[in-house]
């Protein structure tokens, strides 16, 4: 069942990627919104998340195949965490330099990726090499990982909350940007609530134990947990692709999708678009007198 549903999600992700890329093909890259650029990145990572080589785990005993499955999953989850930081910060400014904008966020999310890979595969590799290995006895090996994850999780939550509050305080009164913030926030909250519920159902209070890291793996106790987790991850990105897909008629697309917050206040607002033309909106308030009158 897991193979078939992974295959279904894989084909759906590939189809959505093709449709979304084809819809953006008629627009220059400079006219893509920041969310559209991120959706183009998340869709290929979603394909890896569904793991095209997963059936090989049943055909071979190679540890690399199973390890790649865990690496693909943690890479996609870290990309989502990185996406949330960049969206709430990137909507407030135009200049997104690699060093000043992306590097601090990569440093914050990077430890989650490293610790996730270690937690997912350390126990399996040790038990494969040493059948007498017991994580309950050798749980001290996970103390540093647990401390690192806890510290960076607190920093990430505090930083994300600050970015959300700053974004709403700066952009909530601006046309178009307010709707973008609301959609990102609502979709993020729904995804976090569902994923937190799944985590609690699968691990319970084991997450706060010293040996919690050894119990984290890519297996699921019931099919419902597997379907819910993979479903929310896939449909979250599918929703992004559906919402950020451009319309067939460009219209005001090239001007509205600008990521400059000042553009939203200076140029056409939401009321100017249906009720007034762009040419009329730039006419002077006091036209010069006609000499013939």
Automatic annotation (TrEMBL):
<feature type="transmembrane region" description="Helical">
    <location>
        <begin position="223"/>
        <end position="244"/>
    </location>
</feature>
<dbReference type="GO" id="GO:0016020">
    <property type="term" value="C:membrane"/>
</dbReference>
<dbReference type="InterPro" id="IPR047843">
    <property type="entry name" value="WLS-like_TM"/>
</dbReference>
<dbReference type="GO" id="GO:0015643">
    <property type="term" value="F:toxic substance binding"/>
</dbReference>
<feature type="transmembrane region" description="Helical">
    <location>
        <begin position="70"/>
        <end position="91"/>
    </location>
</feature>
<feature type="transmembrane region" description="Helical">
    <location>
        <begin position="181"/>
        <end position="203"/>
    </location>
</feature>
<feature type="domain" description="Wntless-like transmembrane">
    <location>
        <begin position="1"/>
        <end position="248"/>
    </location>
</feature>
<feature type="transmembrane region" description="Helical">
    <location>
        <begin position="37"/>
        <end position="58"/>
    </location>
</feature>
<protein>
    <recommendedName>
        <fullName>Wntless-like transmembrane domain-containing protein</fullName>
    </recommendedName>
</protein>
<dbReference type="Pfam" id="PF06664">
    <property type="entry name" value="WLS-like_TM"/>
</dbReference>
<feature type="transmembrane region" description="Helical">
    <location>
        <begin position="103"/>
        <end position="122"/>
    </location>
</feature>
<feature type="region of interest" description="Disordered">
    <location>
        <begin position="253"/>
        <end position="293"/>
    </location>
</feature>
<keyword id="KW-1133">Transmembrane helix</keyword>
<feature type="transmembrane region" description="Helical">
    <location>
        <begin position="142"/>
        <end position="169"/>
    </location>
</feature>
<dbReference type="InterPro" id="IPR040416">
    <property type="entry name" value="TMEM181"/>
</dbReference>
<feature type="transmembrane region" description="Helical">
    <location>
        <begin position="6"/>
        <end position="25"/>
    </location>
</feature>
<keyword id="KW-0472">Membrane</keyword>
<keyword id="KW-0812">Transmembrane</keyword>
């Amino acid at each position: 069942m897991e193979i078939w549903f992974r295959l279904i999600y894989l084909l759906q992700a590939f189809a959505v990627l093709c449709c979304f890329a084809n819809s953006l093909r008629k627009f220059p890259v400079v006219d893509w919104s920041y969310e559209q650029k991120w959706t183009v990145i998340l869709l290929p990572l979603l394909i890896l998340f569904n793991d095209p080589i997963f059936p090989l785990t049943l055909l071979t005993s190679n540890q690399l195949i199973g390890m790649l499955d865990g690496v693909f999953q943690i890479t996609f989850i870290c990309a989502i965490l990185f996406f949330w930081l960049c969206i709430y910060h990137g909507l407030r400014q135009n200049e997104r330099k690699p060093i000043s904008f992306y590097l601090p966020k990569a440093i914050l999310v990077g430890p989650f990726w490293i610790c996730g890979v270690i937690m997912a595969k350390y126990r399996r590799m040790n038990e494969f090499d040493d059948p007498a290995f017991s994580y309950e006895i050798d749980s001290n090996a996970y103390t540093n990982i647990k401390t690192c994850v806890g510290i960076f999780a607190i920093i990430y939550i505090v930083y994300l909350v600050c970015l959300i509050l700053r974004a709403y305080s700066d952009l909530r009164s601006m046309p178009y940007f307010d709707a973008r913030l609301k959609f990102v926030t609502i979709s993020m909250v729904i995804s976090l609530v569902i994923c937190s519920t799944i985590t609690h159902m699968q691990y319970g209070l084991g997450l706060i134990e010293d040996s919690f890291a050894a119990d984290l793996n890519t297996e699921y106790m019931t099919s419902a947990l597997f379907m819910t987790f993979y479903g929310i991850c896939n449909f979250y990105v599918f929703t992004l692709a559906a919402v950020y897909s451009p319309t067939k008629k460009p219209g005001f697309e090239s001007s509205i999708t600008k990521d400059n917050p000042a553009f939203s206040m200076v140029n056409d607002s939401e009321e100017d678009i249906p009720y007034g033309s762009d040419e009329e909106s730039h006419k002077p308030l006091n036209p010069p007198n006609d000499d013939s009158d």
